[in-house]
Amino acid sequence: MSAPLRFAMVGGGAGSQIGDSHRIAARMDGLFTLVAGAFDIDPERSRAFGRSLGLAPERAFGTWQEMLEGERDRDDRPDLVVVATPNASHFEIAHAFLDAGFDVLCEKPLATRLADAVELARTARRRGCALFVMYGYSGFPLVRQMRAMIRAGTLGRIRVIQTEFAHGHHVRAVERESPAAAWRYDPAVVGPSAVLADAGTHALQIARFTTGLAIEAVSAHFASCVPGRALEDNAQLALRFSEGAVGALWTSAVAVGQAHGLRIRIFGEDGGLAWEQERPNRLLWTPTGEPTRILERGQPGLAPEALAACRVSMGHSEGYFEAFANIWRDIAARLRARRTGTPVPEEPPVPDALDGVLGVAEVEAAVASAAAGGAWTAVRVPALD
Ligand code: NAD
User: Fold this and answer.
1) What 3-state DSSP class applies to 84?
2) Ligand 1 atom closest to residue 90's alpha carbon, by position in its atom list
3) Would you say 119 and 95 are in contact if contact means Cβ atoms under 8 Å apart?
4) Given a cut of 90, is residue 385 above it in pLDDT?
5) How far apart are the C-alpha atoms of 184 and 17, rounded to whole Å?
6) SS3 letters across 220-284
7) In this predicted model, what pLDDT tens digit does every residue of 68-100 receive, in sequence order?
8) DSSP-derived secondary structure letter, 218
């Protein structure tokens, strides 16, 4: 087995929501080692946290600028830099590392403005770097099963795609009580959208990933249910997909009683599929005119790409970290293929710069639509090269 790839992190400090998810997923297959980081907005905390993770003291940096300077000329520089800071800083940080020739895995949303997302994609191309975007739910085995079934034509022509990512974590003004929540409704940090750019974008990415269809236009209605919020905490989107399919997204942070609330239902001429992230190990499949079947994760007869994404035997719980790790494993395969000049695996696709750009373009179209009273608004994506 070849030596593990090296990765570094910006953001993801102690107590952050997503930092540990990356660190746990990255080491699950022994394919990556953390070698450097600037983890925290506070330089002293950042250095201390890096050392607590076992980094060499000279690679536990106070700021990402110090990390860029300290790492760029090393022979053993990182193979991948993860950007896991709050949204508005993604552009500047990812741009600086791409420009210095680093491959980057950026958290979603890729940027807070479409123009910036496009610029990141173009910079990656210009510098010959890989740019991945962490839409982690496409790592779930049964999400990959949905994609495989739809690609095989099992559902026939897709007619309706119904998606949800509606949770209840911000039913009250948590942003006034907790510093960790404060940035999530601050337009200076998240841009023009809160819950759609934070949660709903995942559901839209799964819709694209599973069906292969593009979201061509949106009609959006935003609401700020909690008084004082500058941005939406509930959004309803009608969706027009390519090939004539239609659909909807409900995304919310005020759905009391919903824990996480990510689900998708896909209806085609020849059958329907239904999957919920809180019950990730079963997929409901109803062939048209026949009873519903339950497909269990790990079951013989699933698509090879779904089985390849299963890590523990059928019946044992498997979930979020493993799905994240599947994305990390796919990234490792792509990084190794690029370094050895071997063909880059095509399936399953890893969420990349295009996914990141599409995610921001969909948010921007929805923001414009909501401001125009729900007018149908095209999702436009400029050329990325
Ligand atoms: P958080 O507020 O919990 O943590 C952010 C971390 O970044 C903190 O440790 C903070 O000190 C650090 N930080 C901030 N600015 C920094 C800077 N300039 N340099 C270095 N470190 C800095 O936020 P979070 O919930 O972990 O979210 C971070 C990003 O991850 C966001 O873009 C969010 O949208 C995304 N996210 C993605 C998923 C997913 O499923 N893919 C889930 C949660 C969050």
Assistant:
1) strand
2) 32
3) yes
4) no
5) 12
6) EEEECCCCCCCCCCEEEEEEEEHHHCEEEEEEECCCCCCCCCEEEEEEECCEEEEEECCCCCEEE
7) 999 999 999 999 999 999 999 999 999 999 999
8) E
**CA 108–ligand 1 middle distance (angstroms):** 10
Measure 180 CA to ligand 1 centroid, in angstroms. 9
Q: Which residues line ligand 1 (CB under 6 A)?
A: 10-13, 16-18, 38-41, 64, 84-87, 89, 107-108, 134, 136, 180, 198
Per the prediction, the chain carries an average pLDDT of 97
Percent residues over pLDDT 70 in the chain: 100
Q: Give whole-number Cα distances, 349 to 139, 158, 282, in Å.
A: 10, 20, 22
Residue labelled with tokens 């959208």: 193
CB-side exposure of 342: number of CA atoms within 13 Å? 7
Ligand 1 centre from 12 Cα, in Å?
6
Distance 179 CA to ligand 1 centre (A): 12
